[in-house]
Amino acid sequence: MRFIIQRVQHASVTIEGEVKGKIGKGFLVLVGIGLDDDEQVADKLVQKLVQMRIFEDENGKTNLALKDVGGEMLIVSQFTLYADCRKGNRPSFTRAGKPDQAQKLYEYIIQKCRQEIPVVEQGEFGADMKVELLNDGPFTVLLDSAEVMA
Fold this sequence. Notes:
Strands 1, 2, 3, 6, 7 and 8 form a six-stranded mixed β-sheet that branches. This protein has a two-stranded antiparallel ribbon with strand order 4-5. The protein contains three helices and eight strands; from the N terminus they run E-E-E-H-E-E-E-H-E-E-H. It is of the alpha/beta class. The two termini are 13 Å apart. Helices cover 23% and strands 40% of the residues. The longest helix is centred in the last third of the chain and has 18 residues, at 99-116. It has helices at residues 39-51, 99-116, 145-148, and strands at residues 2-15, 18-23, 26-32, 53-56, 62-65, 72-77, 120-122, 129-144.
């Protein structure tokens, strides 16, 4: 499982011209689900995500978590985080989770985040989405279950 976490001033996701999810200050989280991922992996990454301290405190140090700043979260599924570009020029996605399994885990992740964070918006699994954001910093972090679970 891979989470790309972007600290944003605002972000939104639009599907067929209609805004599906929109947040102010917080995290835009792109979620990629791999073949071997399960709820245990999701639980571990969600805990890391909601406790991630990447907002500045009064001393300018990144000591504050999303809850500490009243931040919001926008979660967007992104199977392309499992692109394998080792051979040729066309990425392979054979390591991405199968759609049924991935959709269930995506919904599970959203549910777990909503237990921790008051405002959690989402994209639509499998949809053609347009994502807009104002990256704050820029500050972008990759959480990869291959490293977190090791």
